[in-house]
Amino acid sequence: MPPPVDIVKVAIEWPGANAQLIEMDQKRPLSSIIREVCDGWSLSGSEQFALRYADGPQLYITEQSRGDIKNGTILRLAISPARAARQLLERIQSHSIDARLEALKELAKLSADPTFAAEFINMEGIGTLARLVESGTHFGEMLAFTLTAFLELMDHGIVSWDLISISFIKQIAGYVNQPMVDVSILQRSLAILESMVLNSHSLYHRVAQEITVGQLIGHLQVSNKEIQTYAIALINALFLKAPEDRRQEMASTLAQKHLRSIILNHVIRGNRPIKAEMAHQLYVLQVLTFNLLEERMMTKMDPNDQAQRDIIFELRRIAFDGESDPTGTEKRKATYTKDYKMLGFTNHVNPAVDFTQTPPGMLALDNMLYLAKVHQDTYIRIVLENSSREDKHECPFGRCAIELTRMLCEILQVGELPNEGCNDYHPMFFTHDRAWEEFFCVCIQLLNKTWKEMRATAEDFNKVMQVVREQITRALAMKPSSIDQLKNKLRGLNYSEILRLRQSERMSQDDFHSPPIIELRERIQPEILELIKQQRLNRLCEGSCFRKLGNRRRQEKFWFCRLSLNHKVLHYGDLDESPQGEVPFELLSDKIPVSDIKSVLTGKDCPHMKEKSALKQNKEVLELAFSVLYDPDETLNFVAPNKYEYCIWTDGLCALLGREMGSDLTRSDLDTLISMEMKLRLLDLENITIPEAPPPVPKEPSSYNFTYNYS
């Protein structure tokens, strides 16, 4: 008979004594169990004790968290959180430096525990730590442990950041602005300032007054990757929280300080590989930089504004005149309508009307003017080349430039907030001070080239734009490292190549539709599905690393999950850092029997997505979320690192439970593998040697069916 579901068998340790093996009744009050354990070792005052996990983060066990205890868990009897908080609060104020150092070291470790943190904060512990920092008497390891404890305590969200004093901010900013400071102190100081900026509007202004952008950029030129990451994170936080009227000013300052080239040379092209957190911060900086274009993108042109109309006059002048227009010349004005038509504007009389739709608004005009002035020969060639074609094949430069600008804004998500968990930065955008404009110039030449390759007419405009979008997105997916490399990638993605790729992909989806081929496909499918199922289960046995995401500041905390080789148990546990390769089962302290798993939830149905419904949920995170629901009404929550891992795990878990694998990846793999197998089998059929036979009796042509032995 299986044990009752409310009974868990655990081992409890106490220093200097043999461990107690007990059956813990989850229905009994925790205090009653602790009293019984204390009696077993003849310890009095059971209310002064508590239970903690012996492994991993060693968190305190409470009535709310006791449901996470599994059979075979090793626990430890420890002093209660309140008692520990009181003792540490006294010890960190000791006159003995050694005693204070040991206390702060222990406090830095315990502060991550929410139960302990609540007790310590209730005893005004954060105020005590703040005063220790403000005093300026702590240095080296002692200061590093103090800052670590402070940051961990604040990250629990129990105390508002708005309560932080100005003197504390000045002291922390001082560590960042100092030319020589201990790495651990600098790292924690940068993290504290980032949290201040992100969590308090009022503190943003105070931090912005204390921190010099030049000093932050200086921290990017060091060899320590962690310092570089925290420095960019703080720059991003200041950028993100800055008032709209300050962002352009801040961007100009960063440009003057050569932020882009420093990131390119010291981070992207540095000696060490870029980790996930750094990739995310580079992506955030890329998004925030492109979001500076949003104001122009959403600004309509005023057809009556002479200054704005002068820009259009300049486009016409560069293309057709070569020198300044004589003012007040009626003859010249009469030719404007013809010239604007040759420039490809929709409204030949007043092309300003073409820029009244947002997006892309005035941003399109800015792009066109940049091309005309910086790449003048290219601009003139495109305009004159199309103006000399037959009318039905001319590529309307103005209309194309406007639509292309709108398309690029959509592809690069201009105006949207960064997605948590996204690392999709493009190195090439850090290789040029005017990366957006240069990107446009490359793409408008691509559009003109594709138009010619397609021999398009005005009726084909939307088709051409669809092909160009595909060319650009495919090239970006290859992550070109420079603008020149982007050009090379696009050269290889001409219209003929796009047609070939489409045909190849269509073949994998459609293949043949004759009855024999359909029959062959149906016979092959179960075999291929079983193959895919085994591949998914093998990947689950290898395991995957997941990053912990929460309401707290972004930080590198990981956990790993893998399936046992006999497919009967899910093993999981916390890790200090992202693993390099497979993690042994022995290091994964928690487990779930597969027989206890009831279902797999995805997306917004996941409990950890519902809990955050009050916050702005990024669509990307929502699409990567899934949960394992197991007895008794418990969940193990995941956020996959990417779409591929999401499909692998959700498919694998469904296969484990005997349910249908329904991800896009499975459908794609199924189509691809079936097509490959069909081609191989049909090739075998074609190579069969047919023995000679008498010539058939001539008859009317007809369609022939064939059958094939698949066994």
Automatic annotation (TrEMBL):
Keywords from the named record: Apoptosis, Cytoplasm, Membrane, Phagocytosis, Phosphoprotein, SH3-binding
Pfam family, one: ELMO_ARM
CDD domains: PH_ELMO1_CED-12
Subcellular location field: Cytoplasm; Membrane
Residue span, ELMO domain: 307-476
Top-level taxon of origin: Eukaryota
Amino-acid biosynthesis found in the keyword field: no
GO MF annotations, alphabetized: SH3 domain binding
Gene Ontology biological-process annotations: actin filament organization; apoptotic process; cell motility; phagocytosis
Keyword presence, Metal-binding: no
GO cellular component: a single term: cytoplasm
UniProt cross-references to PANTHER family, sorted A to Z: ENGULFMENT AND CELL MOTILITY, ENGULFMENT AND CELL MOTILITY PROTEIN 2
Entry function: Involved in cytoskeletal rearrangements required for phagocytosis of apoptotic cells and cell motility. Acts in association with DOCK1 and CRK. Was initially proposed to be required in complex with DOCK1 to activate Rac Rho small GTPases. May enhance the guanine nucleotide exchange factor (GEF) activity of DOCK1.
Protein name: Engulfment and cell motility 2
UniProt source species: Oryzias melastigma (Marine medaka)
